[in-house]
Amino acid sequence: MNNTVIPPRILRANQAHGYLGMCRDEFNKTVRPNVREFPIGKQGVGFDRLELDAWADAYIATNSVDKQQRSDTPLLPKPEKRLMGRSGSQAPAAKPDPHANSKEEFERVVAMVTGKSGKHRAPHHTEQPE
Question: Region (Disordered) spans which residues (predicted)?
Fold first, then answer.
């Protein structure tokens, strides 16, 4: 059996605003004066779904804002993060390269940041005398 859902051609007034994704007040103000409505039964009011679609297409074409494609816009550089509590007169601290692949490079950067020479540091894996 085919489970194809066919939307109704006629929408009641209480369904039409939801179909267009609008609140009822906006629908009554913006859409309703521009589309035909017709009676359904004694009290109901209906709208043609295809006419609502045509109105939505025209509204989008008239009011849409053209935007540049992402590839056309130049990428802006990310702003540098400011360090908390640093006054404007202090020089920024040197940041170690997170991609440094050697112990010597790391020790050089630590020495530069702390102002100490890395050559006088004890190795990390020394055994304590018993």
Answer: 65-130
Tokens encoding 110: 């630590």
- Total domains in the fold of the chain: 1
Distance of alpha carbon 14 from alpha carbon 5, whole angstroms: 21
Global pTM reads 0.49
Give the whole-angstrom CA distance, residue 53 versus residue 84: 54
**Residue 52: C-alpha distances to residues 25, 27, 86 (Å):** 16, 11, 59
d(CA 105, CA 97): 9
Beta bridge partners of 47: 11, 37
Is position 68 within any domain?
no
Cβ(95)–Cβ(88) below 8 Å: no
Kind of pairing between the strands at 37-40 and 10-12:
unpaired
In a domain, 3, yes or no: no
Structural domain harbouring 46: 10-63
